[in-house]
Write a structure and sequence with these properties.
Blueprint lengths: L75 E7 L2 E6 L9 E8 L5 E9 L7 E7 L9 E5 L5 E3 L3 E3 L2 E8 L1 H9 L2 E6 L9 E6 L3 H11 L3
Antiparallel strand pairs: 1-2, 2-3, 3-4, 4-5, 5-9, 6-7, 6-10, 8-9, 10-11
Amino acid sequence: MRDIFTTLSCLAALALAAPAMAQQTDATSDTAAPADTAAPADTAAPADTAAPTDGQAADPTLSMAEETAKDGVGQPYVKQTFEAWDLRCVRVPEGQQEPCQLYQLLSDSQGNAVAEISVFPLQEGQAVAGATIATPLETLLTKRLRLQVDDGPVKRYEFTWCSQTGCFARIGLTAEDLASFKRGVQASLTITPLAAPDQDVELNASLSGFTAGFEALQATTPE
């Protein structure tokens, strides 16, 4: 995202003072002052030079500061780290339960950050846990997301939506899926770039620390 700065130019008004010119006149001739030398009438200041009212910046193009909450309410933070996984929570007012997820940033073979996975527990339904997987915006959605744990079966998932920040798949994990995550070593996620539909990109998520992290995650989730 690019910040756009506007350069403001200030114009200074020049005050011109006409020099007084003394003239000797014949004592017998009466001369009247020219009309254009008459004293100017009082004039009001231009509207754009008026003083700003309370709470209003003199220049409407300036962005004024807005204070953030001192207690950090609404701010995400890493509560605890479990090897490859971070337990990320969002600060809430005192006395409320913080929403938390198990998070890992995924990189390609060149070490470039490409995707994210966030895992959260569920209380009801066939899925005992869910995961949100974020991929680059130009992902070929029709190829879907492919997920494999170690040498287990490859499972395909539909993408849920795309926004300006990327494309997202919200997937459900059954008890069997969750068990494979806990006993596994690595989860492989495969996506296909829109610009190269014949080439797949495989991203590896380490499952080191997942079991302890998920147990800590469940402890933060109200029954």
